[in-house]
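Lab notebook, bench 4. We co-purified these components, and the gel suggests they stay together. Before we commit to crystallization screens, I want a quick structural picture of the whole thing.
Request: model the full complex, all chains together.
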Amino acid sequence: MLPAFALSFVFIWLLNPRYGLVNRALIALGLPSINWLGDPFWAKFSIVLLAQMGAGQFALIFLASLRAIPKTLYDAARIDGANVLQRFVRITLPLMTPVFLYDVVVGLGLALQIFTPAYIMTGGGPADATLFYALYLYRNAFSYSELGYAAALSTILFGLTLVVAVGVFRYFNQQVNYEVGA
Amino acid sequence: MLSTALKPPAEVTAFPPTVWPEAPRWANFRDAVQFIPFGRYFVNSLIVTLFGTVGTVGSSFIIAYGLSRIRWPGRELVFYIVIASIFIYIQFPVNPVTMIPLFTLFASLGWTNTFLPLIVPTFFGNPFYIFLLRQFLMQIPFELSEAAKIDGANEFQVLRFIVLPLSLPAIAVASVLTSVTIWNDFLGPLIYLYDQNMYTLAVGLSFYQSTYEVQWQLLMAASTLVLLPELILFLLFQRAFIRGITIGSLK
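Here is the predicted assembly.
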């Protein structure tokens, strides 16, 4: 729910090689400090790290759906002698599969279109390590004025998005349980 | 974030870092607001968010009504197309997939550097909110609509006087979600607005960063101020949020 641009600012600050809290914590633990946004591997890692901050949204969805599971199912299972683990594996997980599918599809879609953190934090660098598709698209369209090329890129992204969405849906839909709708 | 926002400039880079500033410097907020035309950007963000929310929720509601309360041939097909496009319009209101053709369109209309490209598209609905509202509308008993029609109400009267008052909870949820998303939008203002006076907060804030000596305490103070309206909105509508997400995610 938090805006990507504000989080990006906070992250630049936290990951600052000299003054950032993260590196200071590493040094305090006796570990080597990391040049987070200056190293091709760690820059990518930093953006993945930032993406974890989007977990709140999915946590909310999980929370809402967990509450929607009828309590009677658990009571019935308890009477039949199922323990905590069995109740979780046999009741909670199967009933949550539609939510997992939804979250996977939405998460993948958002990740494919990731733009703001890379634009603000790294600008695509170092050595193009964080030059994501949307950023490349943006650059071609608005920095290099290659609108034709950018339009072609967005068409490919459209196709790619479609293939991924249909693929995920097809693959996981068999495992998804819609029967006892909450 | 708040901690750095309250530190005096010298303490920001102090070693060892302090978790909480010894003497909170609230003046940072005043400086942050004066460093960039914060008030101007705030108003710009407010205009875009307000019209964008009205546009998105209003149009999505009418589309959702058409997809749930009226029967017509091909409705299911259209609904599936709407569902499929959720994946593309996931980044709302501007997404990388459609931004190039839309940009060329709005540029040829001479709409760049106005709020129009950020507001007008929202009046054509958003598949996610259409889906969310449709799920809710399906739950309203159809007998109510039929009773009203027997009493001589036409479709618009049913929409206005029967269905709309009953859908207010769902509309509230959709409005909160939409306004937060538009408020946070970075890509849209970035590509359409190039006059500094037109910037929204999201883009305007990068000013702190573009100055070669980054004023961290000011950047953090400004970020806090940007988050504040969202935080208040969220606390006010926390219950509606969680309930609303259930409408959307579970069938």
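Chain A has a mean pLDDT of 80. Worth comparing against the SEC data before the next meeting. Chain A touches chain B through 52 residues (CB under 8 Å).
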